[in-house]
Amino acid sequence: MNRKYAVVLGASALIMAATAWVTYPSSKPKPAANPSKLGYLHCPKCLRERMYTAADADNPCPYCDKRLVATEESIKKTGDPGNPYTLMYVLLFAESVAAMAAVLLVAHKRHKNEEEDFLYINCEKCRQKIRYREQQVGLAAMCRRCGQTFVYPEEGPDE
Predict the structure, then answer these.
(1) Which backbone phi and psi does 140 adopt, to 5 degrees?
(2) Taking Cα atoms as reference points, which of 44, 37, 85, 84 lies closest to residue 67?
(3) Are residues 66 and 138 in the same domain?
(4) Residue 131: which domain range?
(5) H or E element, residue 158
């Protein structure tokens, strides 16, 4: 593997690992809010909701056995809390697109001399215009259209 590719892919992997580590949702329970302000219990899996009572706060959801979450506002008003992994997935997707763009940028061959002049000749058999560089003078070549073989001349007759 080319060293440039290894550097680009290694840097991309490190950046993506750091992003995943920083944005991964915490498994720690959020600090409990003031119990006097809590008004609702909802299930994060089935999204069913009921009024808050201290006795029901420790019980699991009767429908899916998930732990109930106490909130001050109804999720019917505030909406579904959403997937906690969404931010991480979006950032990792954007970084993977950037990594692919970096690989394409490294893979793209650049001409060293943009000011370089090309020489031109016409194929003797089919008259196809053929472009070549000065470094190719004296090399054997073949017309792409008709297959006629020839040697690139010193100076093209078209110039």
Answers:
(1) -80, 145
(2) 44
(3) no
(4) 119-151
(5) none
- Please tell me the pTM assigned to this model: 0.48
Alpha helices in the chain (DSSP H): 3-23, 75-78, 86-107
> What angle do helix axes 3-23 and 86-107 make, rounded to 10 degrees?
170
**Which tens digit of pLDDT belongs to each residue from 112-148?**
666 678 899 999 999 999 999 888 999 999 999 999 9
Closest CA to 96 of 29, 8, 155, 27: 8
Co-location of 36 and 16 in the same domain: no
Domain total for the chain? 3
Q: How far apart are CA 44 and CA 81, in angstroms?
A: 8
Q: Read off the tokens for 25.
A: 């949702």
